[in-house]
Design a protein that fits this description.
mainly beta; four-stranded antiparallel beta sheet
Length: 302
């Protein structure tokens, strides 16, 4: 769908091109296993031998674990715990390419993506997977071998996922049976904390809103071009533009204010509490304690 836009200028063309490039990059990131067999749905232990030097790079998702208060990063080379003081710790020595990632509760993670290269009994696309021990072990829940969710949200007793294979938004109430919703090209989406049927998505033409549970989307006039979104509370939204500019809304997306900026290409976003914002870029993970106005380096990347 084409959303109404103002007269196209060189700057707006460049910004739209940045989102298009980001969409391609997000859709294409991942690794494949050529001779994989279907997963049996049971928990899998960590591989016996970890990578010699596990590195934190290509971050796909961020979240705060309520169990320990630490930031966790899902990356191309596994899930890492990031204490405020100390080095990143790769969980269980597993280099699973965790694409979609969300923290549901204490030590309770949902994910998707591609298996550790040493786990040759796994399919190339993991579907929806779950960990209840902070990423030490994972088990398959549904769509193993089929879906590769690049964005996941858990809210209102539902799980919302965007499958990069079909470019389709999907919703489940039992983590097993999925209801297909809109098919569109998006980089990220967020669900209203108050209404399970209200979603915002970032597209090449700008943010779009759904009031029908993600079945259809409409443009949001006046909203800035955004790549990543988080919706932590009723009125508060935080978004990151392709150029690293941080935009916030205090009225559920009706109006936006530009705050600060993060260096590098944005890759993942999460918020915590009322003022904390964490943004992963290709240069590092950056933290703001003032709702995105200023940032400091939280963890440089390899």
């Amino acid at each position: 769908m084409r959303l109404p836009r103002p007269r196209r200028t060189a700057r707006s063309a460049l910004r739209t091109g940045l989102v298009a490039a980001a969409l391609v990059a997000l859709a294409g990131c991942g690794q494949a296993a050529d001779n994989a067999a279907p997963a049996d749905g049971t928990a899998t232990a960590a591989p016996a031998e970890a990578a010699a030097i596990p590195e934190l790079a290509h971050v796909h998702g961020l979240g705060i674990n309520p169990a320990d208060g630490n930031l966790y990063a899902a990356s191309h080379f596994g899930v890492f715990r990031l204490p405020s003081n100390g080095e990143p710790e790769q969980i269980a020595g597993r280099s699973q390419d965790t694409m979609g990632f969300t923290i549901v509760g204490p030590d309770h993670f949902l994910g998707s993506g591609h298996p550790d290269p040493s786990e040759t009994d796994q399919p190339p696309h993991l579907g929806l997977i779950e960990s209840t021990d902070a990423g030490n072990t994972w088990r398959s829940l549904s769509l193993s071998g089929e879906a590769d969710f690049h964005a996941l949200e858990a809210a209102h007793g539902r799980v919302y996922g965007y499958d990069s294979q079909t470019r389709q938004l999907m919703v489940t109430s039992d983590k097993t049976t999925w209801d297909p919703r809109a098919r569109l090209a998006l980089a990220d989406f967020a669900v209203s904390p108050d209404d399970p049927d209200v979603l915002l998505a970032t597209t090449e033409q700008g943010p779009a809103r759904s009031t029908g549970g993600g079945r259809t989307f409409s443009p949001m006039p006046g909203a800035p071009l955004l790549l990543l979104l988080d919706w932590p509370s009723t009125d508060r939204l935080v978004g990151i533009a392709p150029d690293g500019a941080v935009h916030t809304s205090a009225d559920g997306g009706g109006s936006w204010t530009e705050q600060g900026r993060v260096p590098g290409r944005p890759e993942a976003l999460t918020t915590h509490g009322t003022t904390d914002v964490y943004v992963a870029t290709d240069s590092g993970i950056h933290h703001s304690g003032d709702n995105g106005r200023t940032f400091s380096m939280f963890q440089p990347l390899s």
